[in-house]
Design goal:
- 2 copies of one chain form a homodimer.
- Chain A is α/β, with parallel strands linked by helices.
- In chain A, about 30% of the residues lie in helices and about 30% in strands.
- In chain A, the strands form 8 sheets. In chain A, strands 3-2-1-7-21 form a 5-stranded parallel β-sheet.
- In chain A, strand 5 and strand 6 form a beta hairpin.
C-alpha cells in the first residue's frame, strides 16, 4: 500500500514538508494544493525585488513541473481546498476529492486588514505573494505618495524599497516606536534615524482611522490628521489562515493559531490528532523562554517545522523544540536582528528584566570599513537566565544573533555565558573582544549591583 | 595601604589585565614592564599592515603616556625583567627593584625557530612584534623570492600579504596539508586552491632541512630539494616564554606552558600560588571538550584571560572556563574559521569521531553577491556531543563559528542541537535554512545510520 500524503499550502512550510515526506518515504504519493500561482519562493524577498536587486523569476526556486519530474511530488497550483473531512480522511480541491493517510496543513497566514473604512479602496495593497508584489510594482508607475501602514520589519523594508524608487514615503505606526513587538525603543531609535536620513517620514502613536478617496485612495487619516497619498501598503501583521483547521475542528490557541505538539500534531478538544501535522505561519509555538505560547511567523521557522511535519507525515519520529524565534533584516545600511523576548514581550509574560548593552565595531577599530555595532542582551532579573537580545550593526549581525539564540534556548545564565563565551577574532571580522561579550559583561554588572 | 600590582608583558593579556586591575581597585598602583617598544597592539594585524590596508601608527591603540595619564597605569617599555623573587615578592627590571602584592605574568610566546642550520642568517624573519613587521617591510624592497616556512594561519596570511606585494612566494609545510593542527584536510584543500590562484606555490610533507647562503639567505632545502629565495619568514608556531615562570619555579604542563587554575593562578609543585596570575600565550588551558590540556594562543583568549587575571590580582573573584578556542582568518576572498577539535586534534585525544558537512551560500541562492559556504561539524562517535566545527566561506564565518562554539562548550549533543537550533533569516544574510543547520542534520544522519 502506497502511503498517501496531502499537503495544503505551498510556501516554505508546505514545500519543505512535501520534500521531507518524499525523502523519508520515497514510495509515498505526495500531493500539494495551493491557491497561489507560484510555489517555493520566499515572500521575504519581495521588497528587494521591488528595489531591483533581483527578479520575480529568480526568486522562484522551482515550479510545479520540477517537483513532479525531479522529486515525484504532484503540485496543484491555483487550486483551493474547499472541504476536508478528518473522519473519512478526504480533501476536496478544485472540484475533486482525494484520500489521504496523513495530512499536512501549511496554509500560512494573511495580512491583517485593519477594520477601518476604505481598506478595500483601489491602490490599497498588502505584501504577501508574488502577485501582491507585481500589483504594487505596476501601480508604482503612477503613484508618487505612499503611506505604509505599520512600521514593523516588513513595513520598514517596504518603506525603503519604495523610497528608493523615488516616492514620497510616510510610515504610520499605532505604537510609540517602530518595530514595537520585537525591538526595544532604544534599539529601534537608531534604525528610525537611519531611515529618516533616506527621507522617510514617520508618524508614531497614530492608529490609522480611515482610508479615504473616490475611485482610488487619496488620503489616510490617523490621530485626526490627514496624510495625502495615492498608494497605501498595509504592513499590519499576519494572521493565521484558519479556514482548513476550522473545517477539521482543530484547537485554536489564545494567539489565534493552531496549537501543536513538538511532533507538529494538532489537538482536537485537547486530544492529540495522530494523522494531521501543521507547520508554518498557521501554528502557535511554545516559547523556549517563558512558559507560554508565541508566534514565530518566520521563513526559517516554517522550514524547520515543515521538515518535522513532513518527516512525521511519512512515518518518521522527528520533533521540534520550543522557540526563541531569531530574526534579522537588512534595512538600508543597517543589519538589525533580534532573538527571544523584547522588553515589550517580556512585560506581556510578566517577566522582570535587567539588560546590558555595549557599543563597538564589526571589525577591529583600526581596520578599514569597520562599522558600528550595538548589542543589547536582556536577562530575567530573578533567575539571571538570558531571555532576549538585539543587534543593530553595519554588517554581520546574523551569525551573532544565532550565537545568542543558542545560549537563550539553552536557558544559559548571564554569568555562565560570560565565563564560558569565547569569540573568534581577526581584525577584518571582529574586535578582539566581540561586542556580544562586552554586552554580556555589562549585563552581568547590572544584574549584580 | 595601596595594593601594588605588577604586570610583566604588555600584549593583549598584559594590558587587559592592567586595565582590569585598575578598574577593579582604582587606588591600586599598577606597573607594567615590557621588552617591546610598542604596547597595546594586535600582532594579528601585521600581515594586513604589510599589505597596506592599515598603518603601524593606526594599529597601536594607546602609548605608555596614555596609560599613565588616562588610566593611572605606569608602563615601562623596552625594560627587561631580569629577576623575580616570589618569597620576598620583588621584581627586578631595568636595574631597579619593585615590590608587588600581586603579580600578573603575561610574557606571551615567541616564534619557534626550527633547529636547522642557517636559521640565524640575514633575511630570516619571524612575525611577532611591530618591529619584526617593520624589518620585513624594509627587507621586502630588495627581495623577490620569499619562502614561508610553515603553512599555518599566520604563514598563509603572510604568504598572501607578501604575494600581493608582487613577490614570488613558496610556502613549505612539514605536514601533508596546510593548517595541519586546526583544520581538516578536506577543509584545508579549498583554501590551498584559493591561494594557488593568487600564484602562491605550496610544498607539503617537507620539513625544512636547512637555510643556506652567505651574507644573506640564498636557498632553503626541504625533502632534499632546493628552493631559491632571498627572504625566509618563519611561521613555525609559537612557544611560551617561560623565563619568568621558571624564575618562580611554576609548574610547566606537558604542552610546554604554565598550568593555571580557572582563576588564572599557577601552581608550584602542584600547590596553587595565591598571589600570582598568568594569562595569554604563556598558559596552557583546559580543553572544554576533551579531558586534557590545550593551547589557545589567540588574541581573544589573551583578552579573556587577562581580564580574569587582572580582576583577581586586584582582589575580585573572577574565573575563566575551559576552552574551545574558536579562530577565524580572512585569507584572500575566503573567511576560514574553526572551533573545538580538528580531526587531527581529536586523534591526539583518542576520540572516535563522526562528521557532517553541508555546502550552501552565505545569502539566499538568488540574492546578488552570495558567496559559497562550507560548514563541517564533528561529534564524538560514542557520546554524540559536538566537539569541533570548521567553516570556509566567502563572508560571515565569524558569528557562525561563535554560535557553534557556544554549543560545543556546553557539550550539546548533535541531535539536541538540531532539534533546538534556530537561525535568523533574511535573503541578504543567510539561506532560509542556514548552512550550519544543514551540516548539523547531515551529522545527525551520519551518527544514526
Amino acid at each position: 500500500m502506497v502511503r498517501k500524503i496531502i499537503v495544503i499550502g505551498a510556501g516554505a512550510a508546505g514545500m519543505t514538508a512535501a520534500s521531507a515526506a518524499k525523502r523519508t518515504d520515497p514510495r509515498a504519493a505526495v500531493t500539494v494544493f495551493t491557491e497561489d500561482e507560484h510555489i517555493a519562493y520566499s515572500p521575504c524577498v519581495i521588497p528587494w525585488v521591488l528595489e531591483g536587486r533581483t527578479t520575480w523569476n529568480d526568486i522562484v526556486m522551482h515550479d510545479a513541473s520540477y517537483y513532479s519530474e525531479e522529486r515525484g511530488i504532484t503540485v496543484h497550483t491555483m487550486t483551493k481546498v474547499t472541504a476536508v473531512d478528518g473522519n473519512t480522511k478526504k480533501v476536496t480541491a478544485g472540484g475533486r476529492t482525494y484520500d489521504y493517510d496523513t495530512l499536512v496543513i501549511a496554509t500560512g497566514g494573511a495580512v491583517f486588514r485593519p477594520p477601518v473604512p476604505g481598506v478595500g479602496l483601489k491602490n490599497v495593497f498588502v505584501v504577501r505573494t508574488i502577485n501582491d508584489g507585481k500589483k504594487i510594482q505596476n501601480a508604482m508607475k503612477d503613484c508618487n505618495r505612499v503611506v505604509i501602514a505599520g512600521a514593523g520589519v516588513i513595513g520598514l523594508e517596504m518603506a525603503l524599497s519604495v523610497r528608493k524608487g523615488g516616492k514620497d514615503v510616510t510610515a504610520i505606526e499605532m505604537f510609540d516606536q517602530i518595530m514595537p513587538r520585537i525591538a526595544d525603543k532604544d534599539m529601534a531609535e537608531p534604525v528610525q534615524k537611519h531611515l529618516e536620513r533616506f527621507g522617510i517620514k514617520f508618524v508614531l502613536s497614530s492608529p490609522i482611522q480611515s482610508i479615504e478617496g473616490g475611485d482610488t485612495v487619496r488620503w489616510v487619516t490617523a490621530s485626526g490628521k490627514r496624510y495625502e497619498c495615492d498608494m497605501v501598503i498595509l504592513a499590519t501583521g499576519v494572521r493565521a489562515n484558519l479556514e482548513v483547521p476550522k473545517m477539521l475542528g482543530l484547537d485554536i490557541g489564545k494567539l489565534g493559531a493552531v496549537v501543536v505538539s513538538p511532533s507538529m500534531r494538532p489537538y482536537r478538544n485537547g486530544v492529540l490528532v495522530d494523522d494531521i501535522f501543521v507547520a508554518g505561519d498557521v501554528v502557535q509555538c511554545e516559547s523556549a523562554i517563558a512558559s507560554g505560547p508565541t508566534m514565530s511567523q518566520l521563513g526559517s521557522s516554517a522550514v524547520k517545522q515543515g521538515l518535522v511535519a513532513g518527516k512525521n507525515a511519512a512515518g518518521d519520529r522527528a520533533s521540534s523544540g520550543a522557540v526563541a524565534s531569531p530574526w534579522v533584516s537588512v534595512i538600508g545600511d543597517l543589519h538589525i536582528a533580534g532573538t527571544g523576548l523584547s522588553e515589550n514581550l517580556a512585560a506581556w509574560y510578566n517577566i522582570r528584566t535587567v539588560s546590558g548593552r555595549a557599543e563597538g565595531f564589526t571589525r577591529a577599530r583600526y581596520y578599514p570599513d569597520h562599522k558600528e555595532m550595538i548589542v543589547k542582551i536582556m536577562a530575567d532579573a530573578d533567575t539571571h537566565a538570558m531571555i532576549g537580545a538585539q543587534i543593530v550593526a553595519g554588517e554581520d549581525a546574523t551569525g551573532r544573533i544565532n550565537w545568542l539564540t543558542d545560549a537563550i534556548i539553552n536557558g544559559t545564565k548571564a554569568e555562565d555565558f560570560l565565563e564560558r563565551a569565547e569569540n573568534a577574532y581577526c581584525p577584518p571580522t571582529s574586535m578582539v573582544r566581540d561586542v556580544v561579550i562586552s554586552a554580556a559583561e555589562n549585563l552581568c554588572n547590572n544584574l549584580n549591583r
